[in-house]
Amino acid sequence: MRVTYCLLIVAITSQHAANADDPPTHDFDLSHPHPVTNPQSQLMLRGAWVPDDPHTIDFDQLPKVPAEYALISDVRGDRSQPPRESTAQHADHESGGVNQHNYLVHHDGEFWAMWSDGPGVEDRVGQRVKFARSPNGLQWSEPQFLTPPPPNSGPDSPHYGTRNADGFRYISRGFWQREGELLALASLDEADGFFGPSLDLHAFQLEPDGTWKDLGVVFDNTINNFPPKKIVSGQWMMSRRTWDYKKSGVHFLVGGTTGIDQWESFPVLGSGSELAAEEPLWWALPDGELVALFRDNRKSGYIYRSFSTDSGRTWSRPVQTNFPDATSKIHGLRLTDGRYVLVSNPRPRKRDPMTISLSDDGKVFHTMAYLVGGRRIDYPHVLEHNNHLLIAFSGAKQTVEVLKVRISDLEGLSNAYVK
């Protein structure tokens, strides 16, 4: 069924700032960014509706995007009140637990979803990866396990469901379509802090019988954020955090062509000092140069940005932009029509609502619209297919849910609030 998340479309104006006569709360460099001539620009959000302090945007009054909805998995103890009316069945019958780290792909005529599924609150001993399949993105199969139990960390382990350095966990890391094969990535490490010293990134290959074969380690001492994508050189690229990334900062891995375990690692200088960089996202600009966006765990409330002009080998020092953020995971991509979309939680200090923003050049966004909210929403992943966007997300880290949005329904929003 088609559900419209509210009907009112409201242009947000600068009247939402505390007082038009007061000086701006923030003094951003709003010159237009350029990877070569102006990588230090802070401009990432611009429009007549954007106040001097972007934190004061009235996020609940953003234009609303119509969407169809499905619930893939639910491990809440009390499911008497589902988060939204769903065309999917309640697929997971365990009481309690965690569902998060959602990823999507369309492969061999089907949609696939994967996510972390474990006991307790988040990333505890015994956590595994699950997957489900769908013909249309709205009716989903019963979830199945993709990974085996972590070593010596199954339900019979004395450490199961705890945070403990003697137990292990898998963390879902996304689908990788490589040479016609479907691979699923998952990190494995000690389930104590973030992350354990034995951290490795593994690949599992989909077999003809529907099972998943562990191909081994893709790169040691690594957790990625999103699966590899091709860059202009023809190589693959993905982000890398090491087990001690809070000191070493973020890296990018480039390679993956001669073998799934053949990569070079390049640091983003300043990602451990200019900010506490988390969960990187990157995309290519129309000219092939690269943009990376970072969540800032120092809780500045803004997204940071860096550029690369040499296929990910070197990066400009990350700069705080004027794009607001709740210190939450983000995801976005370039559409086939050339525009860019970014799905995020822009309200500072609260992962509510989840919004979608539009950009023509991949550097500056001019429109922000409301997708879903009224509760905790996070861990988005976006997939474009057949004139639609499929947007997976987690509800309070206990559900895996999906919105299906017609790209044509974004047309009325495009350029609506540009100066």
Précis, in short:
This protein is mainly beta and 419 residues long. It has one domain (2-234, 242-248, 256-263, 362-410). The protein is 1% helix and 42% strand.
DSSP strand tally? 25
Specify the biggest β-sheet: 5 strands, antiparallel
Regions with little confidence, pLDDT below 50 for 5+ residues: 1-24, 78-95, 414-419
Mean pLDDT: 90
Structure description:
The protein has 1 helix and 25 strands. The chain has one helix at residues 245-248; strands spanning 2-4, 66-74, 98-107, 110-118, 128-134, 144-145, 164-178, 181-191, 200-206, 212-220, 229-230, 236-240, 251-255, 263-267, 277-284, 290-296, 302-308, 319-324, 331-334, 340-344, 354-359, 365-372, 377-385, 388-395, 399-406. It has 419 residues and is mostly beta strands. The two termini are 36 Å apart. The protein is globular, with a radius of gyration of 21 Å. It has one domain (2-234, 242-248, 256-263, 362-410). The strands form 6 sheets. Strands 1-2-25-24-23 form a 5-stranded antiparallel sheet, with no helix packed on it. The protein has a 4-stranded antiparallel sheet with strand order 3-4-5-6, with no helix packed on it.
